[in-house]
């Protein structure tokens, strides 16, 4: 059987799942149920070319996703692939036989160690991958959040990382509780930085008033551009609260 190679390509706030296939032409399509974009890549076409093609189709993906009804959205796919995206960059993956399922870095690659291959136990691999993404995102948040909290004069009382389909993050002004979408671990880190500032600013202003945006842009001048590039939610049509 033909060995098919898959990877994820970051396109703005989207992740396109690309797959090498015996096809004649590049073909981009959207799963009509989940809104997930898929790209079929002919074997002769390089990943570099496929990536620039996918990136040139960003407007098309935006428009196609906006036609999918809100109630049909599902959380993003966290399956194990031959290449996986961490903070907007694609990394090769490999498998090691081991007793306890775990995902870790080794020499610039992502390793899944477990008693069975990711293909033989996809749910186990996904759980390990989600733990890994949580760790990566928590490390970045621990690095950036204290600085911005100090700049804004606020304190985050609790931080949680969750799979959410319609929000990048949320904040509760009264309790100081923040939630971040795990999906931020797959997008460029500048987006996580923006969502950190956005949610911390909600500890100052609960709404999205001009005063709120003034607070946001005071500490992160590029916030409005980042907000536009990121989009409102991992799935289309959601809102950032
Ligand atoms: Zn908000």
UniProtKB/TrEMBL annotation:
Record organism: Boudabousia tangfeifanii
Domain YgjP-like metallopeptidase, residue spans: 24-230
Family annotation (PANTHER family): UNCHARACTERIZED PROTEIN YGJP, UTP PYROPHOSPHATASE
Record-linked InterPro entries: UTP_pyrophosphatase-like, YgjP-like_metallopeptidase
A Pfam family that the UniProt record links to this protein: YgjP-like
Protein name (record): YgjP-like metallopeptidase domain-containing protein
């Amino acid at each position: 059987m033909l060995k098919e190679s898959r990877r994820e390509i970051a396109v703005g706030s989207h992740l396109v799942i690309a797959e090498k296939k015996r096809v004649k032409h590049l073909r981009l399509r959207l799963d009509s149920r989940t809104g997930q974009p898929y790209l079929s890549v002919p074997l002769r076409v390089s990943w570099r070319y496929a990536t620039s093609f996918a990136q040139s189709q960003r407007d098309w993906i935006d428009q196609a996703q906006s036609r999918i009804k809100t109630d049909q959205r599902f959380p993003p796919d966290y399956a194990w692939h031959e290449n996986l995206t961490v903070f907007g960059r694609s990394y090769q993956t490999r498998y090691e036989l081991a007793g306890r399922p775990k995902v870790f870095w080794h020499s610039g690659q992502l390793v899944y160690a477990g008693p069975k291959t990711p293909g033989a136990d996809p749910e186990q691999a996904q759980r390990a991958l989600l733990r890994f993404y949580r760790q990566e995102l928590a490390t970045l948040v621990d690095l950036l959040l204290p600085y911005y909290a100090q700049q804004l004069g606020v304190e985050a009382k609790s931080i949680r990382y969750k799979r959410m389909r319609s929000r990048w993050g949320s904040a509760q002004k009264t309790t100081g509780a923040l939630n971040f979408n795990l999906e931020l671990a797959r997008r460029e880190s500048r987006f996580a930085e923006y969502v950190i500032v956005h949610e911390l600013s909600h500890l100052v202003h609960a709404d999205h008033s001009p005063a709120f945006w003034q607070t946001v842009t005071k500490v992160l001048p590029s916030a409005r551009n980042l907000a536009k590039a990121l989009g409102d939610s991992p799935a289309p049509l959601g809102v950032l609260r």
